[in-house]
Prior knowledge:
Radius of gyration: 19 Å
Mean pLDDT: 92
Strand order of the largest sheet: 3-2-4-1-5-6
Number of helices: 13
CATH architecture of the largest domain: 3-Layer(aba) Sandwich
Order of helices and strands: EHEHEHEHHHHHHEHHHHE
CATH topology of the largest domain: Rossmann fold
Strand content: 5-15%
CATH class of the largest domain: Alpha Beta
Shape: globular
Helix content: 40-55%
Low-confidence stretches: none
Structural class: alpha/beta
Number of strands: 6
CATH superfamily of the largest domain: P-loop containing nucleotide triphosphate hydrolases
Amino acid sequence: xxxxxxxxxxxxxxxxxxxxxxxxxxxxxxxxxxxxxxxxxxxxxxxxxxxxxxxxxxxxxxxxxxxxxxxxxxxxxxxxxxxxxxxxxxxxxxxxxxxxxxxxxxxxxxxxxxxxxxxxxxxxxxxxxxxxxxxxxxxxxxxxxxxxxxxxxxxxxxxxxxxxxxxxxxxxxxxxxxxxxxxxxxxxxxxxxxxxxxxxxxxxxxxxxxxxxxxxxxxxxxxxxxxxxxxxxxxxxxxxxxxxxxxxxxxxxxxxxxxxxxxxxxxxxxxxxxxxxxxxxxxxxxxxxxxxxxxxxxxxxxxx
Length: 304
């Protein structure tokens, strides 16, 4: 019989915290379907580098929204939320348990709380913002944003590249700061859904060790084949240099190694450091941004 409770489980936390295996076990014990909420794992071009579940793991229980987009396709929180809602409703209709898992906190927040209406940003504006950030580097780009939109800049970590670019492109495209659009009433919440959230927050040093071990395992398992293949697509013009997937942690450093611009040790160090910085931001975000609301029935923080 169809599930009438409309309860949705969410497994969140920083990268390398064990979300995928935790969600898999939960799905196996609860007639569940694992639904991806990681912005990079949507793409099929870097499955190993983005730490997607293996084919063997996916065979154990249904997995949705992994490797569903080509690197050339755009994506954002609203598009993901619409795809996720479809998969969630299908699970509920079939009497299965939807288990949303991933580390892109903003995607989860949009699903649970809705999103203020936001105008489309022209592709050329996004491309210019991305190129500007890449040329200037994050601290200088953050300072430039702060001069034009201090309210948004104050809320954004200087090393959160995607959010910095988004704030800049919205301001450039609309003439109004991101904070203006975010102040408008939110849309898109499914009122009958309730969320049971588990946030995995391992001890910080152990998390960093997990990141290093995972990166080394990728290097030992031919992750460079993925990097070279994606770089060839960029060179051919099939994928734009400003595509979402290009900011996958470790990709640029390993691409530079492939091109002879960095040694393997340099690329490894940068890839691990970038991933650690991202995990640190995620750790802080999940501790501060997910709050008990009317549609969140349970909120647990655990260390596994």
